[in-house]
Design brief:
This is MFS transporter. This protein is an all-alpha fold. It has 20 helices and no strands.
């Protein structure tokens, strides 16, 4: 199966993109499932419930540490075997958790899963970008990252319900089986791409200092800090407002993110900058509204829904901007940096929100979340030239600038442009 045949006529390679989306779904579900199983897992493993919560921490810490060095070490290898290896790592990790009666062994299995997660997240957006012509990247990345939204909105609640029905060990065993089945799907429907030869490899530092990359990483950090402050402590804030149904608020947020990712898929390739500005402005506007109108429960629920719509598409918009700024050939390295920043934002947001909760009370949570989100909005507004341009027309011209001898169409030229270093050189020179 050639890339040109997949994208001929402007069609997306749906089967391959959905396989990558399921990989994202599996990674998120693997990461977060223990959080819903604290009492069930604590007794069999002989530890307190807080120690089961640390299994999520172990995953995030390993992902944070492994993303950049592992991605850099594997850059020269063919991409599809690396992707399959990460999925098999998830299968092994989840199988170990399902069979383990030892807490240290369970922690080790979670560290393995985190390292695989860091590797996987560094690949997914760049892989999707290389499967389609330049002008379709945004929609392809939106399809793949929709797996995150579906895992948060549906997968984690469904996985928790399954664990309550058949036992937590069976739930993790099911995840292991899902990862194995995904390997077969990836081998059948996801195209293979070569790794980067040593002589053509751009050093990580050079990728990090490109003018468009740094603002995107800053926006990632600012947005995740602000979002995580509010999301982590939405329960205490709801109780402070007299609305103790945290599950309802989280369900409203999760369902709304599905609408957000759909809207993003429709708009991202035509209006990327405008859509991101509107999304960040909505998040920034919702936070003061929550803080001022928390006593009105209808307003609170509606604001949380609007927050979910706005935030649902923001990661895809930011990820697409990063791929455009770094170039598809170096997207894995750039995304590994973003994975590290993403996890740092989650950790910092949870910590800052907790400190604000202890020092100022739950009423301060939305006001603590507001400044970093506003910084993200200002950074996007200021990054018009390199990181967040007005449109993706320049990106769409990459294929035409990189037409290789013998290419029969713009779509085929796009395939050549993202799979050979000569084409990538043209892209960077044109930018």
């Amino acid at each position: 199966m050639t890339l040109s045949s997949q994208v001929k006529g402007g069609r997306l390679p749906w089967s391959g993109l959905l396989a990558l989306s399921c990989a994202a779904f599996t990674a998120v579900l693997t990461e977060l499932l223990p959080a819903g199983l604290l009492p069930a897992m604590a007794a069999p493993l002989g530890v307190a419930e807080s120690r089961i919560g640390f299994l999520v921490t172990a995953y995030a810490a390993a992902s944070f540490v492994a993303a950049v060095p592992v991605t850099a070490a594997l850059r020269s290898l063919p991409r599809r075997p690396v992707l399959c290896g990460a999925l098999l790592g998830f299968a092994v990790s989840n199988a170990l958790v399902a069979l383990s009666s030892s807490y240290p062994l369970t922690v080790a299995a979670r560290l393995l899963a985190g390292a695989m997660g860091g590797t996987l997240w560094a690949m997914l957006a760049g892989y999707a970008a290389r499967m389609v012509p330049a002008e379709r990247r945004g929609r392809a990345i939106a399809v793949v990252l929709a797996g995150i939204t579906l895992a948060l909105a549906l997968g984690v609640p469904a996985g928790t319900a399954l664990a309550q029905l058949v036992g937590w060990r069976a739930a993790f065993g099911t995840l292991a089986l899902l990862a194995v089945l995904l390997v077969g799907w990836v081998r059948l429907r996801v195209p293979g791409f070569p790794g980067e030869p040593p002589h053509a490899r751009v050093p990580l530092v050079r990728v990090a200092v490109r003018p468009g990359v740094r603002p995107v990483l800053c926006v990632t950090l600012f947005l995740l800090v602000g979002h995580q402050v509010m999301y982590t402590y939405v329960g205490p804030f709801g109780a402070h407002a007299g609305y103790g149904r945290t599950g309802v608020l989280l369900a409203v947020f999760g369902i709304a993110t599905v609408g957000g990712i759909w809207l993003t898929g429709v708009l991202i390739d035509r209006f990327p900058r405008r859509t991101l500005l509107v999304a960040l402005a909505l998040v920034a506007g919702v936070l003061p509204a929550i803080g001022l109108g928390a006593g009105a429960h209808g307003l609170l629920v509606g604001a949380v829904g609007l927050w979910g719509v706005a935030f649902g598409g923001a990661p895809t918009l930011i990820q697409t901007a990063l791929v455009d700024a770094s170039g598809p050939a170096d997207a894995d390295v750039a995304t590994s940096l973003q994975t590290t920043v993403y996890n740092a934002g989650i950790a910092a947001g949870s910590l800052i929100g907790g400190l604000a909760l202890d020092a100022l009370g739950a009423g301060a949570v939305p006001w603590t979340a507001f400044p970093p989100v506003l910084l993200a909005l200002v950074t996007v507004a200021a990054g018009r030239r390199h990181a967040f341009p007005a449109g993706r027309r320049a990106v769409a011209r990459e294929a035409r600038h990189a037409v290789a001898p013998g290419a029969r169409s713009v779509a085929e030229a796009g395939a050549v442009a993202v799979t050979c270093r000569a084409g990538d050189h043209e892209v960077r020179r044109g930018r």
